Amino acid sequence: MILVKFVCAIITRSLFILVSLIGVWRVKTVKNDNMYWLLTVLYIPLVLEMIITLKRRKGQDYKWFSPAILFFLISIIPSIWLLELHHQENKAIDPQCRKLDSWDNVKSILPTNGTMGEETLKHLERMLTSVCANDWILGLHQVLLILLILGKWLLPLGGGVTRDELSQLLLIFVGTAADILEFTSETLSDVKENNNQLVYVILAVWTWSMLQFPFHLAVVTSRPQNSDEPKGGDGCCNLVLSRHSTDIWNIVECLFIQDGPFLVVRLIVMIYFDVFHQMLVFFAIKNFLVVVLNLYRLLVICQDFKPPSSSPSTSPPV
C-alpha cells in the first residue's frame, strides 16, 4: 500500500511538471527568447514539496490543503499569463495557423509512421508551432483543469479524509472547472484590441478563482450531527455551525472566489467597456442567480443560529 502511495505521488507531480514545462516551451517559442526558460525555476517548490512529502508523510497529502496543487498552479499560471497577454497584443498580426477544429487538422499534427527519432521530434515541433495561438491557450487551460481533477484523485488521501469526501470534492472540482473555463474563454473573447486593462482584470480574477483547488474546506469540514450535543445556548450554535459547515464554505467560495467576482467582471465588460451579446447576458444572469440563491441559503442557515424561545413553564396540577 505504501508503494502505491509513493508511485501515485510521484506520477502526479511528474505530470504537473510535464504540463508546466510544455507551457514554458510555448512561451519561449512565441516570444522567441531563451530567457523564458528561467520560468522553470518555479518548479523548485514543487520538487522540494515532493521530496518532503515522500520522506516525512510517505506520499500522503494533507487534509485541508494540497501544497502540490498550489505549487503546480504557481509553476504554470505565469506561463498562461504571458501567453494570454502576448496573444491579445498580437491578434491583428497573427500569421496563418492551423486550427484544431477538425480530425484532419489534428491528425496532420501527429508524426507519420515514416518519421522516426530526431525527425519525429522536429516534425512534431514544427506542427505544434503551426497551431493557432488561441487553440494553444485554450488547450493549456483545458489540460490544466483536467489535470487538477485527476491529480487530486491520484494523490494519496490526507489523514482524516474519507473516500466519500474525496468523491464529493472531485464532483465539486468538475463543476468549478467548467465554470472557470467558460468564464475565461467567453470573457477573453470579448476583449477588444489594445485593451490590456480588461485582460489584466480577467486574468487576475481567473487566478484568484483557481485558489479553490488547493484548498478543500468545503467538504472535509463537515461532521455528522451528534445527538448528545446540548440543545441550548452555545451548544446549539456549535451544533448548527458543525452541521452547516460545508454549506457555509460553499457560500464563501461562491460569493468571494467564483460567482461573485465573475459577476462583477461581466458587469464591468457590459457597462464600462460597452460589450453586449446574448451569451454574456446569460452568464451574467446565471452568476447573479447563483449569488442571490447563496445569500438566501445563508439567511436560512442564520435562522438556525437563533436559539429556540423558551416557553413559560406550567406548574404541575396538584
TrEMBL record:
Keywords: Membrane, Transmembrane, Transmembrane helix. InterPro entries: Transmembrane_26 (IPR019169). The chain crosses the membrane at residues 7-28, 34-52, 64-83, 136-155, 167-185, 197-220, 279-299. PANTHER family: TMEM26 PROTEIN (PTHR22168), TRANSMEMBRANE PROTEIN 26 (PTHR22168:SF3). This is Transmembrane protein 26.
